[in-house]
UniProtKB/TrEMBL annotation:
Domain Mannose-6-phosphate isomerase type II C-terminal: 349-451
Domain Nucleotidyl transferase: 5-282
Keyword GTP-binding: no
Record GO terms (molecular function): mannose-1-phosphate guanylyltransferase (GTP) activity
UniProt xrefs under SUPFAM superfamilies: Nucleotide-diphospho-sugar transferases, RmlC-like cupins
Keyword field contains Nucleotidyltransferase: yes
GO biological process, one term: polysaccharide metabolic process
Swiss-Prot/TrEMBL keywords: Nucleotidyltransferase, Transferase
Name the UniProt record assigns to this protein: Mannose-1-phosphate guanylyltransferase
Organism of origin: Paenibacillus algorifonticola
């Protein structure tokens, strides 16, 4: 059966300030499912994959920073292929191919389909994905793509231009379930002007939606021909030597035989605020007011301070602990050019809860102080850990829990203040929803390391609580 690999290694700039390096755009819960529950892009796509019977043959290629978020939003058992570094899609797909070959035991003649993790599509889009294996077998092409029939001359997307002879009449690949029509590819055009896009559409060009398939042996042989490892562990060790370039530029556009499977239906890249808000059911998420004379205006507010928008149309206002964005929708794709890389994430979701940075500063004497509000979900716990160069003061502001420090156990609740010296092992488990104000301090020049001993509360109870 064909294997699917979803690529989820991107950074969080295009949907700033809600997205950041710790919480990329695909994890934002701004879409609504059929049960009127708020879900993220990755939850929506993974649900569609399971609905179409593809879950057992699917993997997600992602970065170390996204492991916890992926397991929290989908499942702790979600099959992940971990990229040691961000090096664009050529490196990510190469690593995934070696994982399938040397770890998952996938045969060289088996088909592999690559998908972005965040497209907004109807469920039947995955019927087209399923057909890629048949297209590869029938066409004997090196790579098979899915091309979306354009609905307007967009300058934001890449285009797949079919060969002239093939564009008049598609080649049919018969299977027992479907009839697939594919055409040979002539060349590609990346983000043309709208005028050029109109001409491309007249020549039967398709939007390139970033979905393609190949036989596993095609990529494995390519890596071997370049003297690169074909074993997952070895390629991981040499990952930093791979070029930072897209798979499209490095492989697809150099292939000698490419075909495209046309798809006609809903497809959107929700990578910018203007496209994302088109699919949001609610014009307002979070505290605030949008006046009635505002047209096509959206507010997404993640903090407790209310935001009022009066008399502004075609505008997005996004507010989070990372910052505030006020933008005309048409200008929103430019946000990535204005984001500073100096500030770390101010809001982080974890498997056990969340962290919100309230203040983080360094003083003239070299002392650094970070203040955070930490939420721990019912029944969840922090790992049994120590800080090598930071002391902490915890103030419990909500709920109750079980606290352990250096083997000493105690019940804690709202109003308790706990002092945790440097290099002191500690952990806490939430008996109810728990919130803590954490003030962490030390000398900035001393690099702090977090040493984790045990992760589950059963391990902590067995090994660390003094009887």
């Amino acid at each position: 059966m064909m294997k699917l690999v979803l690529l989820s290694g991107g950074s969080g700039k295009r949907l700033w300030p809600l997205s950041n390096d710790a919480r990329s755009k695909q994890f934002l819960k701004v879409l609504e499912n059929e049960n009127r529950e708020m879900v993220s892009m990755v939850q929506r796509v993974w649900g569609q994959i399971n609905e179409n019977g593809l879950g057992d043959s699917s993997y997600i290629a992602t970065s170390q920073a996204q492991i916890e978020m992926m397991q929290t939003q989908i499942s702790p058992e979600v099959p992940l292929i971990i990229e040691p570094d961000r090096r664009d899609t050529f490196a990510a797909i190469s690593l995934a191919a070696t994982y399938l070959y040397s770890h998952a035991g996938v045969g060289l003649d088996e088909a592999v389909a690559i998908l972005p993790v965040d497209p907004y599509v109807e469920s039947h889009f995955f019927e087209a994905v399923k057909q890629l294996e048949e297209v590869l077998n029938r066409s004997d092409a090196e790579i098979a793509l899915i091309g979306v029939k354009p609905t307007y001359p967009s300058s934001k997307y890449g285009y797949i231009i079919p060969e002239k002879a093939a564009s008049a009449g598609a080649v049919t690949a018969m299977s027992s379930m479907t009839v697939s029509e594919y055409v040979a590819v002539s060349h590609f055009r990346e983000k043309p002007t709208e005028e050029i896009a109109e001409r491309l559409i007249a020549d039967n060009a398709y939007w390139n939606c970033g979905v393609f398939a190949f036989k596993l042996g095609y990529v494995i042989e390519l890596l071997a021909s370049r003297g690169l490892p074909i074993q997952y562990e070895e390629l991981s060790k040499q990952y930093q030597l791979l070029p930072k370039i897209s798979f499209d530029y490095e492989v697809v556009e150099k292939a000698s035989s490419i075909v495209v499977l046309p798809y006609e239906g809903c497809w959107k890249d929700l990578g910018t605020w203007n496209t994302l808000t088109e699919e949001m059911q609610n014009k307002q998420i979070g505290r605030g007011i949008i006046s009635e004379d505002c047209i096509n205006t959206h507010l997404i507010n993640e903090i407790d301070i209310p935001v009022s928008i009066l008399g502004l149309s075609n505008v997005v206002v996004a507010v989070s602990p990372d910052g505030i964005l006020v933008t005309d929708k048409s200008a929103s794709p430019r946000i990535k050019d204005f984001i500073s890389s100096d500030q770390g994430p101010m809001y982080i979701e974890r498997q056990w809860g969340w962290i919100r940075v309230l203040d983080d500063r360094t003083y003239e004497d070299g002392r650094c102080v970070s203040t955070k509000r930490v939420g721990i979900q019912l029944g969840k716990n922090l790992s049994y850990r120590l800080h090598s160069a930071r002391e902490e003061v915890w103030t419990i502001v909500k709920g109750s829990g079980e606290f352990i420090q250096n083997g000493n156990f105690m019940r804690v609740g709202a109003g308790n203040v706990l002092h945790i010296p440097m290099k002191m092992l500690h952990s806490i488990r939430a008996l109810t929803e728990l919130e803590i104000i954490v003030v962490q301090s030390g000398m900035a020049e001393e690099r702090n390391q977090v040493v984790e001993i045990y992760h589950t509360w059963d391990e902590v109870s067995e090994h660390c609580i003094k009887v």
